[in-house]
Write a structure and sequence with these properties.
Blueprint lengths: L4 E5 L5 E5 L8 E4 L3 E4 H7 L11 E3 L4 E4 L11 E2 L5 E6 L10 E6 L8 E4 L11 H6 L24
Parallel strand pairs: 7-10
Antiparallel strand pairs: 1-2, 2-10, 3-9, 4-6, 5-6, 8-9
The protein binds zinc ion.
Length: 160
């Protein structure tokens, strides 16, 4: 892990990742690593995942999902926020091979040492958002813009 970030308990959820030093905007901090799974495989393996309110899956592109539970690094501990200070940046492979695309977490704005790093998970589930489901995916980011849930309003886009 780079010296610019560190992992410790988070007031939002479980472990979190924090700035170890003051960070400028637009700084690439860490790659989101893990095993690449095809969407169908991830869907089969984690079909019960909607009931956990927790995920280490990250949609890389139309073909692959990154599974941080296998071979993942500290990036999987970065929590969601409705008012994030980081964002995931896709580095598309030059040869067009989707398995060679990579995801890096980058600061959106200057971040002070000690601040928790967050990004918007943008989770969109295929199932209907019942009050119970929203409760399972409750957001505790504490920002004034908090929507109360990690689930993103449904768009007409294809499921992530
Ligand atoms: Zn929130």
């Amino acid at each position: 892990m780079s010296r610019s970030i560190l992992v410790r308990r988070s007031p939002i959820h479980g472990n979190g990742v924090f700035a170890a030093t003051d960070l400028p905007a637009g700084k690439s901090l860490i790659e989101y690593r893990g095993k690449l799974l095809r969407h169908a495989v991830a869907d089969r393996r984690y079909c019960d995942n909607v009931e956990t309110g927790h995920t280490f899956l990250f949609v890389l592109n139309d073909t692959y999902v990154i599974d941080g539970t296998e071979g993942g690094n500290s990036a999987r501990w970065i929590n969601h926020s409705c008012d994030p200070n980081c964002e995931p940046m896709l580095w598309e492979s030059k040869d067009g091979d989707p398995a060679r695309d990579r995801l890096f977490i980058e600061t959106l704005r200057p971040v002070k040492a000690g601040e928790e790093l967050t990004y918007d998970y943008g989770i969109e589930l295929e199932v209907r958002y019942t009050p119970r489901l929203k409760q399972l995916w409750a957001c505790r980011c504490g920002s004034p813009q908090c929507t109360g849930t990690l689930l993103k309003p449904k768009s007409r886009k294809k499921k992530a």
